[in-house]
Structure formats: structure tokens, C-alpha cells
Amino acid sequence: MSSFVLRCAVATTVLATALMVDCSSWTRQAPEGMKAANDRKAAADFMLSDAKSTRAKLSDYKGKVVLLNFWATWCGPCKVEIPWFVEFEKKYQDRGFAVLGVSMDDGGVQVVRAFMEEYKVNYRVAIGTGQVARLYGGVDSLPTTFIIDRDGRIASGHIGLASKGNYESEILQLLDND
Predict the structure, then answer these.
(1) pLDDT reported for residue 8
(2) What CATH number is attached to the domain comprising 102?
(3) What is the model's pLDDT at position 107?
(4) Structural domain boundaries enclosing 143
(5) Alpha carbon 172 to its chain's center
(6) Where are the alpha helices (DSSP H) in 49-108?
(7) What pLDDT digit, counting tens, does each position of 29-73 carry?
(8) Domains in the chain, number
(9) Can you list the positions of beta strands (E) in the chain?
């Protein structure tokens, strides 16, 4: 293999890796863990337009366990998690669970709608704003995900890619015990 071809292959690999991990680390950051019910803070309410151009309010989900996921269509780790969230929505919606996605894409609703069709997203996705991101600590990395209990309080939070089993365990704990 010529040195030029080898350099091109290495450069392409480095660039592809940089693009995939740009939105967050592929390694799971240590989660805060599930907070005791009396240590949980209220999740900030917000109203955003969803991908169908209707209003989505977090407070509409009170009484349900909610997985609130800040993500973007260009985010590699987000693309890993979204099929899990589709599965959780289908599997647990009858038990009082819901996923609410908040897209932080600059491309607007058209980009999000196309992504939702491609990934067969079966849950509501709102179009995020900087103001809503600030309500949740700035959301500096994507994905950023919060598990919210039936009373609208944040039970746990994850920055970056967390494991499917970790999410499911937390969801089940809230569905079974709260």
C-alpha cells in the first residue's frame, strides 16, 4: 500500500471517529444513580413545538415515568440510544411510561421528521431551544437524558451514552415502586 493511500486511510478514520464522538463521549459517564424520592428536584416545565407542529408540555406527562432525552440527528451516540427508547415506549407505555425527545438540531423540523421516519420513532419529539437547554443545566453534551418520576421530579440523569440495561433498570424501578 502506498504511503499516500495509507495516510488517506488514517486521516479518514481519524475524521470519522472525531465526527462520531463530537457530540459526546462514547464511554458511559458515571451516572448520578437513582436519587431517593425526597432528594429529587422538580423537572423544569417547558412548552415546545413538536415534530408535528403541536405544543408539547412536560407537565402534560405528570403521573407518568418519563425518559426526557436531549439529542440531535447528527449525534452518533444518540443514534445508538434511540432504538432502545423506541423499544421502551412500546414495551412500557401501558404501564404509565413515556419517552419525550427534545431535538437540539439547527436544521429544524424537516430534518427531525425525516430522521423520525428513518428510525421509526414512535414517541413524541419536540424541537428544542437554548432556553429549554439552560433549564436543564445547559445541556452541553448530547445525548443528555433525565428519568423523571410520576410526580415530575428528576430521579436520575445521564450525560453521554448510558447502557440500555441501566436505563431499563431505572425505568422499571420507578414503574414498580413509585
Answers:
(1) 39
(2) 3.40.30.10
(3) 86
(4) 3-177
(5) 18
(6) 76-92
(7) 334 578 888 899 999 999 999 998 899 999 999 999 999 999 999
(8) 1
(9) 41-42, 47-49, 55-57, 65-71, 97-103, 124-127, 144-148, 153-159
